[in-house]
Amino acid sequence: MTEIRIAEDQWDEDLEGNLLTWLYDEGTEVSQGDVIVEIMVEKLQVEIEAPASGILRHGKAEGDLINRGDVIGSVAPG
Amino acid sequence: MVNPTDIKTAQRPAPKARKVLMNRAIREALDYELANDPTVFLMGEDVGPFGGVYQTATGLYEKYGPERIRDTPISEAGFIAAAAGAAMAGMRPVVELMFVDFIGVCLDPLFNFIAKHATHTGGKQPMPVTIMAGMGGGYCDASQHSQTLFATFAHLPGLKVVAPSTAYDARGLLHAAIRDPNPVMFLMQKELLGLGLWGTLPGATSIMPDEPFELPIGKAFVRREGRDITLVGMAASAHMARQAAEALAKEGIDAEVIDLATISPLDRDTVIASVAKTGRLLVADEDYRNCGVAGEVIASVCEAIGHKLKAPPRRVAFPDTPIPFARPLEQYLRPSAEKIVSTTLDLFKDYA
Fold it and tell me: Are the beta carbons of B284 and B299 closer than 8 angstroms?
């Protein structure tokens, strides 16, 4: 299983993001590099890619506040 | 008891369906058209490295460079007129006008030139300009940042006006708008774009095919079939109409919902065919009530089949006043699903 972690340098300043949407439902098989979630940070919309291929699990929900370094979900081998 | 077959089914990955926010759907259409037509270019305030205030152009500057993704100064009159010149020189400009409310300072090149030039030249010089503009309120941005101005543009001959309600429609209609030889106002409701800061209506996000596709400009979509009343909306008010239809179903009223999607040319045939079946009509329109699209839809239906109506048509529109800043005032005046429901219930009570 691979954690989906927001990199410490994902956005510049020490700002909180807002999870806009997961682009795939839980249980979808995604490929490494697929954009899987969008996070709004101030006026910038950040796309997060799947760190590995596998079955997607959502850890955080839409509307949750996200900080750099947070684990927001996971990808497990199918 | 769970049998082994069920466990296997439960563990099978869900089919891979890619959800896309409306602003990203717009970016996909722009990306495809930029990649496949060298005459297409994008310009506007902050569309460059910042990716546009609506994030409709994220990454395009890096991919296509400053010649084709052009940041403009804060001079709408300058860059709308520049789009006209570029179109005359054979280009296919796409311009982002940040807020539709700013049209005031650049209306002359739009309505006196871009909209009329093809006619002036006997059709010899088309004006394939697409103007994308953010519009709509509901988030306390007051009178100069909350308007929809559907009717303002629909009133001008020579312009096409689209106002999609979903990411899927936005993508299909933007492909069509860019390829259209006529100028198209592509109105993006902020509440539907997917940006957290303007709120996001969940129904606006779509499952998106990977391949490009085109939706016809000038075609309305029947979102829900019903027998008792036709509810017409556009952009956010199409969502309000759909929500209202669900609430009305619990009251025993079976509403048909039509999403205009294109404001001009108006798909009168689809609306008239629906009202011919239901006999009742309500139009939800976030634009000002006076001389609005709602009134035009109602007039079109009355001209065609007014004698067949079971009740007078109704409008739920924004009252003829500047849009207030204060949330309670704005919400009081703005159309909503609740207002559509109560107006419909009153109609059925008054004309039982």
Answer: no
φ, ψ for residue B165 (rounded to 5)?
A: -110, -10
Tokens of B307: 């004698």
- pLDDT for residue B12 is more than 80: no
Chain A contact set for B9 (CB, 8 A): none
The predicted-structure confidence for B267-292, as pLDDT tens digits, reads as follows 999 999 999 999 999 999 999 999 99
User: Is the torsion defined by CA of B172, B178, B181, B182 positive or negative?
Assistant: positive
Q: What is the per-residue burial (b if ≥16 Cβ within 10 Å, else e) of A1-15?
A: eeebbbeeebbeeee
Domains assigned to chain B: 19-207 (3.40.50.970), 221-350 (3.40.50.920)
State in words which class domain A2-76 has: mainly beta
Neighbours of B120 (CB within 10 A): 12
Q: Nearest by CB to B13, which of A27, A40, A45?
A: A27
Whether the predicted interface score ipTM is above 0.90: no
Closest CA of chain A from B56, distance in Å = 10
pLDDT tens figures, B197-232: 777 787 899 999 988 999 999 999 999 999 999 999
User: What is the per-residue pLDDT across B66-92, written as a single tens digit (0 to 9) for each?
Assistant: 999 999 999 999 999 999 999 999 999
